[in-house]
Amino acid sequence: MVRTGEQRAGHISITQRQTRVRTDVGGGVELAFNIADDQRETAQVHAGFAFLWKFIGLSCFNPFAHDDRQNSKMVYMPAKDEQFSRYHAMLSPLASRALADADAPGAANHMAIALPAARLLLSDDPSQYEPLVTAMRTLASARSLTDWAGHHRPCYHPFAVHLCLAAFHRHYENIPPSVWSRCEEIIPALVEPLRGSEHFADAAPPDEFVPLVLWQALGLAEQATLLSRDVDLEMTDSLVAVIVANPALNGALHGTSPEESLDSWTYSELVGLHALARLALLRRHKTWAKRVEEIAMYHLENTQPDNATNQPWGLFAFLWSAKTRSFAEQQMHDATAHSGGAVSPLAAMLLADAADCLAEFG
Length: 362
Description:
Layout: E1 17-24, E2 28-36, H1 40-55, E3 72-78, H2 81-101, H3 115-122, H4 129-141, H5 156-170, H6 177-191, H7 210-227, H8 230-244, H9 262-283, H10 286-302, H11 315-320, H12 325-337, H13 345-359
Antiparallel strand pairs: 1-2, 2-3
Helix pairs in contact: 2-3, 2-13, 3-5, 3-13, 4-5, 4-6, 5-6, 5-7, 6-7, 7-8, 7-9, 9-10
């Protein structure tokens, strides 16, 4: 995302700009999000010129990049930047070591395909650019992925897509034009499998589909932000708004069914919370962020460690508010408790994603 003093060329929508993290000593610490009031049609023109700047190698020069702070509306969400820096410093090396050592079976339908993307969320490593292209191309034709334990889960494919889009977004300026153009060409096919979520733009999905729909909405929103596709942003905003407006009676993300075990339901909750937190951060949406905090508070007060998982789904959601950070610290402990201080490759991907969220705050 664009930060104060930086200019980014590309198809990243100029309707959204992050300015800074502001410390307000008297009233706590708040995150200020700058949502620019540029006209959408102007953004499309600017994005077209930005493509040209990138193509001819002028990625640092964009005549349309400007400071939108004077003509903006501010949306505030609770944050604590010094704590975020501390947690980032804890997560990054832990995830980096595990990702560097991760076994890659080589199967096209394995979560290992997203390892290059997860590594790029932690550092700008040019050796991972070509593997990122390969991952995006593979995921465009894949529909189901297997983890290192042999499990298939519906959230794995959209999670892997998200990692690729997030990595591409983070290193947009540094990727060579030849790699950049191939990534951009793949994106429409990459997100095509996620469009099943469009059926729920007007009515809330069944409880069991809520996490998957949120993950699919995230991938579609990320590609829409990169490619300035307003129609997809409007659709995904509607998807998420419907889900946020229909919480479970107890305040959780979604309801339970008699056939579902508590452990399974909790896993589903945390998977969905992870996607919702990412969406709230991506869209700088105060209402969604408040809902993230509500769900996180529910689990802080009701979820026992025995019912949780050693995969830190939703970690950033719990780190976002100071009220729920004890749950996040328990997640970090659980991720390492069964492996002598190391973490599994999948857990490392989740830690890397949380670290990337924290990096958004500077």
